[in-house]
Every structure is written in C-alpha cells, then in structure tokens.
C-alpha cells in the first residue's frame, strides 16, 4: 500500500488528478477549522510551561522522532526538565496514559516506545493532546513540553513551532490529501519558527539536519552487543518508516553490501515467522523504530542501527534564547 501511495504522491502519478476534488474538500474542511480557532470560536488551551511543537505539513516520516530526541538532550543540557506528549499512532488508548520504559509498541505506539526507551523522558500519550499535557504536568516534574507531531492540533496553544521537512522528497506533487502528501499548503511554513530540513539541500532560511549513525545494537535485549555486524557478512535490510530508502542508503554509505532489502508500511506490526524467513540465517538489519516492535521475539542475528540528529550550533542558540524568554514570561 505504501509503495503505491509513494508513486501517487512523489512520482507524478496521473491518478492524482482524479483525487483533486477530494483534495479541495479536505482543503475546505481544514481551512474552516483553522478559521474557527482564528476567530476565537474554538479556544486554544494555553499551558503554564512553554510548548514546542515538532511537526510537519506532509504525511509520513520526515525525521520528527530523531528531532524530538535531539531536543530532549539539548534541553536537559540547558538545565531544563522536558516532557513529551504524543498521539500514540496506531494504538487505541482509553484517555491518556504515561509511557514507561517497559511498555511495548503495541500498547503505546512505536515512536513513543522508542523515545522513552532511548531517553527515559517523562511522556504521556493520548488522542487529546491537551489532556496528555495536563497529565504530564500533574504527574511529572517537567518545565517544558515537546509535542511529537500535532502541528495541526490547534486546540493546544504553542509557543514554538518546528516543522521537519524531508529534504529529498519535500512537498511531493504539491497537492493536499488525498491527492498528495500535504496536510497543509507550503504557505504554512511562513508562520513557523524554524523549518528543519532532513537530508537533501536546505534552502535559504531553512535549518539543515543530518542523521548520523551512532551504534549497532542487538534487537534482542539478551544478546551480546559487542559482536557488531561485519561489513563482509551478507546483510538483509528492512525498514518500516516513512522513507525506507534513506535507511538503505545510510547502510550502503557505511560500506555494507545489501544482499536484499525489504520495505514495510510505516508503523507496521511484525510477525516473527515473516522476519525469520526474510533473514534466512543472514544478519537482519533494521531501524531503531522497527526494533522496538521486535524485541520480544528477536533473534541473535537481528541488529538495529541507532542514528542521532545533528543540527547547527546557531539553531541551538536561537532556540534556547527564545526558550529562556518564554520561561521568564511564564
């Protein structure tokens, strides 16, 4: 399904014109909703601590999760106590709930499970982000909130908006859903604080971001982490993320010879037998986001490559300066 959608949105498939009337309807509905908040008919809820939105205007992975992890570490170094809220995509959550390090992806969502596993940050997931934020403030000692996604969730007032853009795919065919990948038009970028471009070439005024491999780690928590994959060994790579090719390209750039690649839909649920058959005795390499969904049945020859986001010192300085002003005002 995802490969077909990618052809429609990113390869100028002619079917996009047949979906254009639905894109117009989507535009009308979302514009009306934004206008309700703009006129004050619907009220945005302001919180007593600064709120940073890390979102995008396109559907699919653009690098939000590595950016959230980067911000958590940056804010901690600056003496702040961040907490994170998220929708918990792909799981049914009754109300809101805190994410614990032992939680699995099928109970809280793959990205929240990955974020907490990596950082142990206080995190709450739920469909209503205002409720998630209030629980976060009530149950944890946090003084700044990062919303993982939620750029279009206007009920939650925000102090800083960061938009993450895939530098290779950018806006795709430039059309709104479902004809294209856009949730909102490129005009939306004019009102955000920073446009962070993951890979590709950042344009003037945009902030370049790169993802750097940090370590090979075993998917199984019981396996020896010292015996990392050899570049001479046959390697099978799999990825269930928004842009799987980026992961495969990263492995190739590291000097690994990919004997086979397999893409899955973003947020896929994995089956042990399917992955066993895919590996077929070879090393199976996957992303960190995939790994959190495979920990309970992982084999010793399954590994994931952790990556870290890298942004400029000038971005850090501008962001931290604005946060300092917000904290003083709050």
Automatic annotation (TrEMBL):
Catalytic activity: a lipid A disaccharide + ATP = a lipid IVA + ADP + H(+)
Any GO molecular function: lipid-A 4'-kinase activity
Keywords: ATP-binding, Kinase, Lipid A biosynthesis, Lipid biosynthesis, Lipid metabolism, Membrane, Nucleotide-binding, Transferase, Transmembrane, Transmembrane helix
SUPFAM superfamilies in alphabetical order: P-loop containing nucleoside triphosphate hydrolases
EC number(s) stated in the UniProt entry for this protein: 2.7.1.130
Transmembrane parts of this sequence: 15-32
Organism lineage: Bacteria, Pseudomonadati, Pseudomonadota, Gammaproteobacteria, Alteromonadales
Record-listed ATP binding positions: 58-65
Family matches, as Pfam families: LpxK
Pathway info: Glycolipid biosynthesis; lipid IV(A) biosynthesis; lipid IV(A) from (3R)-3-hydroxytetradecanoyl-[acyl-carrier-protein] and UDP-N-acetyl-alpha-D-glucosamine: step 6/6
InterPro entries reported for this sequence: LpxK (IPR003758), P-loop_NTPase (IPR027417)
Sequence similarity: Belongs to the LpxK family.
Name of this chain's protein: Tetraacyldisaccharide 4'-kinase
Chain's role: Transfers the gamma-phosphate of ATP to the 4'-position of a tetraacyldisaccharide 1-phosphate intermediate (termed DS-1-P) to form tetraacyldisaccharide 1,4'-bis-phosphate (lipid IVA).
Source organism of the structure: Shewanella schlegeliana
Top enzyme class: transferase
């Amino acid at each position: 399904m995802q490969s077909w959608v990618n052809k429609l949105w990113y390869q100028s498939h002619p079917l996009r014109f047949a979906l254009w009337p639905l894109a117009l309807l989507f535009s009308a509905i979302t514009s009306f909703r934004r206008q309700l908040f703009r006129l004050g008919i619907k009220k945005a809820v302001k919180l007593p601590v600064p709120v940073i939105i890390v979102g995008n205007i396109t559907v699919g992975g653009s690098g939000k999760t590595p950016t959230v992890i980067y911000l958590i570490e940056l804010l901690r170094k600056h003496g702040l106590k961040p907490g994170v809220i998220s929708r918990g995509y792909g799981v049914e959550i009754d109300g809101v709930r805190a994410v614990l390090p032992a939680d699995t992806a099928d109970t809280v969502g793959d990205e929240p499970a990955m974020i907490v596993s990596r950082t142990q940050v206080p995190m709450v997931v739920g469909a209503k982000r205002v409720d998630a934020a209030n629980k976060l403030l009530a149950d944890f000692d946090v003084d700044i909130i990062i919303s993982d996604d939620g750029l279009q969730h206007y009920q939650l007032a925000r102090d800083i908006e960061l938009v993450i853009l895939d530098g290779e795919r950018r806006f795709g065919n430039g059309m709104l859903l479902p004809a294209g990948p856009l949730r909102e038009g490129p005009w939306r970028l004019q009102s955000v604080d920073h446009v962070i471009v993951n890979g590709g070439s950042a344009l003037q005024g945009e902030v370049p971001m790169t993802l750097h491999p940090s370590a090979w780690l075993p998917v199984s928590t019981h396996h020896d982490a010292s015996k990392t994959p050899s570049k001479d060994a046959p390697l099978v790579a799999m990825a269930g993320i928004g842009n799987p090719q980026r992961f495969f390209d990263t492995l190739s750039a590291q000097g690994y010879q990919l004997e086979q690649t397999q893409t899955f839909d973003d947020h896929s649920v994995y089956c042990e037998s399917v992955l066993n058959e895919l590996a077929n005795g070879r090393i199976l390499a996957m992303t960190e986001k995939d790994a959190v969904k495979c920990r309970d049945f992982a084999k010793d020859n399954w590994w994931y490559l952790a990556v870290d986001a890298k942004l400029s010192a000038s971005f850090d300085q501008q962001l931290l300066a604005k946060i300092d002003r917000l904290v003083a005002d709050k």
